[in-house]
Amino acid sequence: MNNLTDNDVYWWRPLDDAKSDTRAEILFAAYKEIHVNGFQSASLRHILARTGVTKGALYHHFPNKTELGYAVLDEVIARRIYLGFIQPLEDIDDPIEGLIDLIRRAGETFSMTDIELGCPLSVLAQEMAPIDEGFRLRLNAIYDEWHGSITRLLTRARDAGLIIDEVEPRTLAVMIAATLEGSLSAAKVAQSLDVLHQCGHGLNQFLQLIRN
Amino acid sequence: MNNLTDNDVYWWRPLDDAKSDTRAEILFAAYKEIHVNGFQSASLRHILARTGVTKGALYHHFPNKTELGYAVLDEVIARRIYLGFIQPLEDIDDPIEGLIDLIRRAGETFSMTDIELGCPLSVLAQEMAPIDEGFRLRLNAIYDEWHGSITRLLTRARDAGLIIDEVEPRTLAVMIAATLEGSLSAAKVAQSLDVLHQCGHGLNQFLQLIRN
DNA sequence: TATAAAGCATACCAACTGGTATGTGTGATT
DNA sequence: AATCACACATACCAGTTGGTATGCTTTATA
Asked: Which secondary structure element, helix H or strand E, spans residue B71, and what is its range?
């Protein structure tokens, strides 16, 4: 059933190749397992087999599976999301033009391999948010940061008179984020980059319309 | 970890109370288990325990767990989605006004209990689409139907001159569906109806802007 | 150089997983 | 009345699950 577990299919490399201590290895292997299988179905046995690390080592660094999951969310996923999708928003000058450009570039940058597994945030959100408060709070915090950065961008745009007055930055920010997440989800099910592009185009059309 | 499995928390009643044969009971219990835990972590033991049905009965009606999952998707989830979110779109006269009204009403109708577990389609999409083609194709078919019905609505609107010419019905339909799914996902993580309302408001603002 | 603690490794465990083999009652058909 | 298929029920199974208890090195510290 699962044909995506092998390492060679996986394209995201670890962020810091430098200090490749055991803990970091476990963390990254766990991240991959979770991204493919979800948290509950992620197997410690598989993680250990792929790293060569033993169970003793794992339970030396993490008290249990849940805490390992939290660590993956905090130290791997949150970091990637921040570096890839939150921080870049802060450096944009022309808010709307920049946002449009960012979405267009994202649509072009994403490859089929990205589409296949989709956003690890969505995976954990759908699976774990309702059944584990620890996961939910962490996920919520990440989304909050994301919403915040988009909100700041839109506020800047409104203050500069670049977009129509009817726009409420926070409201729109939450909606834009939802659209982006939904787009990746739709593309994942359709296994189609075209679906992603359609969504991106629709969203950009929206952004054009709220311009002054 | 899982505090939502109990029957009394679950609010969606079976669709046809009439013929409550064993197969239907299993199907509905499995649907609930899957909605809460996802497919892979759905336990046949739990399903049997809650229905009172035995393992012999289950494996008499379904050859294996995967086929049970397919049946849940085909006979329970797809049906609910069609009746609740696809068919209603066909009966709308004024496309845009109707769509806006539908989104507003949906935002008001959804309760916190709906938000908690979110859309069962999203749950299975994130978990199973990349690892089981049977699930993916079924999910894709449902989304396709949904996209089709929104596309027809927008086409009607454009032919009637109700929306601006720049709008490509299919493109916008896919984007709108993505936004709606993303909205439910966001509300699920935030456990907040307010987030859902914000997304709905943002989307409606968009629909207002593409009007002629 | 003695001591302690960190960083593992091995072996084992009870609980649970989906799945199967076999038996049994029961209603319809011949 | 005999046959037979349908609709279960019971018991059992090998594999996997997360977790633990007990060891053994290596490294830092005193």
From this structure: helix B65-71
Q: Tell me how far apart the alpha carbons of residues B23 and B59 are, in angstroms, rounded to a whole number.
A: 10
Structure tokens at B97: 């006004």
Identify the CA nearest to A123 among candidates B75, B187, B124: B124
- Measured in whole angstroms, the distance separating CA B75 from the mean position of its chain's CA atoms is 13
Match 């009204």 to its residue by tokens: B101
Q: How far is A19 from chain B (nearest CA, A)?
A: 32
Residues with CB under 7 A from strand C: A 21-23, 53-57, 60; B 42-46, 55-56, 59, 64-66
| Residue type at position A94 | D
- Residues in chain B, overall count: 212
Residues 63-102 of B with CB under 8 A from A: 66
Give the chain B residue whose CA is nearest to the CA of A116.
B130
Q: What's the pLDDT tens digit per position in B5-54?
A: 333 333 333 444 333 399 999 999 999 999 999 999 999 999 999 999 99
- Specify the 3-state DSSP secondary structure of A55: helix
pLDDT tens digits, one per residue of B13-27 = 344 433 339 999 999
User: What is the rounded average pLDDT of the residues A17-35?
Assistant: 84
Are A37 and A2 in contact, with CB atoms under 8 Å apart? yes
Core vs surface per residue B86-98: b (16+ CB within 10 A) or e: beebeebeebbeb
Can you give the pLDDT at residue A65?
98
Helix (H, G, I), strand (E, B) or coil at B92: coil
- Give the start-to-end residue ranges of the domains of chain A: 7-209
Residue with tokens 């007055």: A165
Q: Which CATH class is domain A7-209?
A: mainly alpha
Name the CA radius of gyration of chain B, rounded. 19
